């Protein structure tokens, strides 16, 4: 279940900034994601046009979502599958458990599903005596570690190779794997060997969905490991867990979204595996499940459709906004205390779980706008974050001190002459105090800033002043 822990946000951040292993892992991952995306985008001249198209497809779908959802349900029925509607995480878990009980399931394999994380399906399965087994390598690592994902496409991005080596040694030794492995290919190979048996034991396979195609009633997943395909095809029952916003009208629309998704996420032209699941196995099929179920989750999304946060439902979970966010890059995903981290999570979590519960998240942003510029479906993330901050102000969720300071700021900012006079005075003073130093390591009322980084000293003149001087003959 989505449980943001906003009250601990500040403590989480402090802990993350002081965690040397996390900082190493984040620095390595960040540059890799950014470089690969840049290379993939620059190799495709029509990428910007595709972004426009992708955003338009999602906007059109949201505009007509009720109709498309009904059509999708009919199409799933027509292909022999079933759709289950869930307003809340509890209802979604109940639907999953009912299917599992009917199938007599003891073990469930799982592909990566953020919607599954959102509803807390692993916990629900475990409490019902059904063992969930994560099969995506990153998800498997964090399941062994007893943690939640820290990134929406790379759940174990915060783990160093040494930590994974230690985890595998600890958990795989009782299974007869005695050697301590250190190299990535060896670790991957060992995980494969352990998971192979689990795939064959599973009674039910649960996957998420990148897209749900109305035209065919299919669910689409993209993976690089092929684990999603084994999860969807080997067990007798396949359950897809997805938010209602995953609907896409046609296969042609899906192709557009796939082209921007992989490039934005991992810098690939396409993911290694793109799998369409349509209904249960038909006569003559060589493989596939006997039952196909889609659990469609609302969990606050219908409210979002009708308010100023509708654009957030365009999200295709590529993770680019996380990879390009300086705040996420510094603190990692766990510090957000919610299932969805980074810029998209800072909007989605308050919109779904409530602003009061996650009041710190909209503030975890410098409004630099890099997320806007890389989002493949052109979500105006910083505008939505500003809208959340306005809402916080209206709901009086801003501290008295901040309200007081913002009122003073507003008073001054609305009076340009006073503003310029005060700016010149303050900057002149700071410039004099700092003469020769270039930067401050401590400042009164700015301890939170200078505690983590230096404050550049002003040069003794405001921008406006310099601008005017330059223009004068
Ligand atoms: S908000 Fe945009 S960039 Fe961020 S995960 Fe969603 S689609 Fe990707």
What does this protein structure show overall?
There is one protein chain. The protein has 473 residues and is α/β, with parallel strands linked by helices. It has two domains: 6-301, NagB/RpiA/CoA transferase-like (Rossmann fold), CATH 3.40.50; 407-470, no CATH class. Helices cover 51% and strands 11% of the residues. It is built from 22 helices and twelve strands. The protein has helices spanning 9-17, 20-42, 47-63, 65-78, 89-102, 114-119, 121-127, 137-145, 161-172, 184-201, 227-233, 251-265, 301-305, 320-323, 326-331, 342-353, 370-374, 381-394, 400-413, 416-433, 447-450, 463-471, and strands at residues 82-86, 107-110, 131-134, 204-207, 211-213, 218-223, 237-243, 247-248, 273-277, 291-297, 439-440, 455-456. Strands 1-10-7-4-2-3 form a six-stranded parallel sheet, sandwiched between helices. A hairpin with a 4-residue loop joins strand 5 (211-213) and strand 6 (218-223). Helix 3 packs across helix 12 and helix 9 packs across helix 10 (184-201). The longest helix has 23 residues, at 20-42. The relative contact order is 0.13. The model has no long low-confidence stretch (mean pLDDT 92). The structure holds iron/sulfur cluster.
Radius of gyration: 25 Å
Number of domains: 2
Provide the CATH architecture of the largest domain. Answer: 3-Layer(aba) Sandwich
CATH superfamily of the largest domain: NagB/RpiA/CoA transferase-like
Oligomer kind:
single chain
DSSP, total strands = 12
Percentage of residues in DSSP E strands = 5-15%
Helix content: 40-55%
How would the global form be characterised?
globular
For the largest beta-sheet, the strand count, sense and barrel status come to: 6 strands, parallel
Query: So what's the CATH class of the largest domain?
Result: Alpha Beta
Q: What structural class do you assign from the helix and strand content?
A: alpha/beta
């Amino acid at each position: 279940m989505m449980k943001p822990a906003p009250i601990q946000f500040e403590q989480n951040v402090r802990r993350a900034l002081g965690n040397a292993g996390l900082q190493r892992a984040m620095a390595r991952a960040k540059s890799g994601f950014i470089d690969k995306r840049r290379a993939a985008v620059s190799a495709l001249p029509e990428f910007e046009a595709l972004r426009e198209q992708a955003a338009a497809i999602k906007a059109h779908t949201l505009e007509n979502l009720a109709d498309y959802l009904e059509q999708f349900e009919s199409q799933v029925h027509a292909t022999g599958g079933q759709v289950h509607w869930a307003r809340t995480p509890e209802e979604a878990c109940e639907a999953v458990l009912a299917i599992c009980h009917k199938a007599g399931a003891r073990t469930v394999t799982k592909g990566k599903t953020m919607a599954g994380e959102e509803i807390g399906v692993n916990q629900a399965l475990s409490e019902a005596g059904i063992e969930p087994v994560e099969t995506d390598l990153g998800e498997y690592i964090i399941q062994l570690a007893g943690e939640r994902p820290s990134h929406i496409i790379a759940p174990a991005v915060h783990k160093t190779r040494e930590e994974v080596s230690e985890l595998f040694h600890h958990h795989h030794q009782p299974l007869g794997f005695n050697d301590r492995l250190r190299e990535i290919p060896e670790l991957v190979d060992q995980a494969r060997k352990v998971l192979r048996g689990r795939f064959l034991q599973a009674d039910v396979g649960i996957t998420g969905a990148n897209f749900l195609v109305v035209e065919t009633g299919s669910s689409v997943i993209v993976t690089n490991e092929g684990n999603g395909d084994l999860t969807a095809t080997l067990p007798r029952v396949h359950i897809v867990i997805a938010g209602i916003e995953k609907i896409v009208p046609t296969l042609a629309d899906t192709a557009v979204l796939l082209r921007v998704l992989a490039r934005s996420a991992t810098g690939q032209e396409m993911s290694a595996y793109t799998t369409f699941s349509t209904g249960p196995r038909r006569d003559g099929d060589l493989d596939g499940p006997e039952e196909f179920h889609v659990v469609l989750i609302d969990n606050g999304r219908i409210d979002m459709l009708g308010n100023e946060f509708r654009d957030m439902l365009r999200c295709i979970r590529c993770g680019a906004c996380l990879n390009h966010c300086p705040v996420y890059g510094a603190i990692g995903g766990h510090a957000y205390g919610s299932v969805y981290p980074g810029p998209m999570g800072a909007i989605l979590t308050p919109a779904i779980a409530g602003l009061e519960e996650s009041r710190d998240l909209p503030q975890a942003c410098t409004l630099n706008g890099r997320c806007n510029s890389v989002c493949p479906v052109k979500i105006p993330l910083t505008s939505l974050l500003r809208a959340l901050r306005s809402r916080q102000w209206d709901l009086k969720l801003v501290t008295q001190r901040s309200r007081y300071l913002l009122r003073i700021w507003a008073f001054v900012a609305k009076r340009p002459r006073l503003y310029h006079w005060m700016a010149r005075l303050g900057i002149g003073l700071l410039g004099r105090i700092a003469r020769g130093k270039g930067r401050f390591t401590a400042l009164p009322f700015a301890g939170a800033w200078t505690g983590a980084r230096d404050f550049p000293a002003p040069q003794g003149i405001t921008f406006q002043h310099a601008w005017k001087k330059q223009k004068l003959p």
